[in-house]
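<instruction>
Derive structure tokens from the sequence

<record> Sequence and structure tokens follow
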Amino acid sequence: MTRSERRLTILLRVVGAANALAIVAVFMPRAWILTCHEMLGMGAFPEAPVAEYLARSTSLFYALLGGVYVFLSLDVRRYARAVTVLAVAAIACGVILLAGDMRAGMPWWWIVGEGPFVVALGVVFLLLQVRARSEARAAEEAGPPEERDDAGPGRNESDVEGTADT
């Protein structure tokens, strides 16, 4: 695994685990939703059933996405295309979230913290993907460690045995 693949794996797991925590909001009592809404400075939570439905289904979506990120982290090379698709989707969603947050009149800290963060995350995923591909190609072109000049002594058993005979 290349250095960029390791970094991508860690990032997918951290973001995935954080997103998966949204599962709590799917099942928490309505009173908790009301309290959280007020603590965020957004006033009273709407009484309409659709508001609670949207809060819970959005949380479920984030938790599901978190699970997908963790799953993809299990083999980033194998799932590289899916990671790339999700990275591009994150960039597009971040832009849409930014516009939607501004249009809805969300607080400044929400506007800054949601859309731009999602865009940045997508960009980082893409950059790590590009670097990982480049590093993997370079490693393939260099050949197996025993065939490279930089393999060093003792890395290959046949090299060690061969030096003992001389």
